[in-house]
Amino acid sequence: MAITKIQSESLNLADTYAFTGTVTGVPAITVAQEWRLSSDLSCSTTNAPTLISSNIEQTDTDGYAGIGSAMSVSSGIFTFPVTGIYLIKVNAEWYNSSSDYCGIQIHTTTDNSSYGEAQDLYTGVGGSGKYANSSGDFIFDVTDTSTHKVKFLYLVHSATTLSGNQNVSKTSFTFIRLGDT
User: Fold this and answer.
1) Is the CB of residue 30 less than 8 Å from the CB of residue 177?
2) Can you spell out the DSSP letters for 147-168?
3) b/e for 113-141, b at 16 or more Cβ within 10 A?
4) Positive or negative, the Cα torsion across 136, 142, 146, 147?
5) How far is the CA of 7 from the CAs of 3, 4, 10, 42, in angstroms?
6) Cβ neighbours of 81 (radius 10 Å)
7) CB-side exposure of 66: number of CA atoms within 13 Å?
8) How far apart are CA 106 and CA 117, in angstroms?
9) Counting runs of H as helices and runs of E as strands, what totals does the chain give?
10) How far is CA 31 from the centre of its chain?
11) CA dihedral in degrees (7, 13, 15, 18; nearest 10)?
């Protein structure tokens, strides 16, 4: 039996290719979900992080389409549907009647008990009737869905509103599974 050597060539990524059959070796996103505050959350003056545990709903308007099994949330604790490497994103919209320093934090656990502060996102609200945003992300390796969880906390120094709305995402939490763990 004769062996034929095939000359390898590189692909020109500027070209358009039509594939037939199955393309393998390309990981697909299998989970992508967005959740949001469904109504404003009045944040009392505090100098300690406070759990966001109410007014949370899965986004469901304006053509929203998640991918895969949904996250679940109970008393502000989010549980992942399957293992994997996840990109966790948070966007917070703040409103205040005076100047304030506001923050939202991402806390994770790998033992379903001890939470660590994975991300710290602060901004200043410039004065009466002003809005401000803080946003950030964290990549989290979820090796066990029963022990690896995430929650979001806020920190304000005067009475401030964390904006929420059931028709538009003002404060939102996004979870995208990037690949296998």
Assistant:
1) yes
2) T-EEEEEEEESS-EEEEEESSS
3) eebeebbebebebeeeeeebbbebbeebe
4) negative
5) 13, 10, 10, 66
6) 17
7) 19
8) 6
9) 0, 13
10) 12
11) 80
Report, as an integer, the average pLDDT of 107-128: 92
Highest CATH level, class, for 32-179: mainly beta
Which of 177, 7, 15, 175 lies closest to 91, judged by CA? 175
Residue 171 tokens read as 């404060």
Domain ranges across the chain: 32-179
Looking at residue 12, what DSSP letter applies?
-
Q: What residue type is assigned to position 57 of the chain? A: E
Phi, psi of 176 (to 5 degrees): -125, 120
Q: How many CA atoms lie within 13 A of 33 on its CB side?
A: 20
pLDDT at 21 over 80: no
What's the pLDDT tens digit per position in 76-96? Answer: 999 999 999 999 999 999 998
Q: How far is CA 160 from each of CA 43, 92, 127, rounded to the nearest angstrom?
A: 5, 12, 11
The pair of structure tokens assigned to 128 is 């009466």
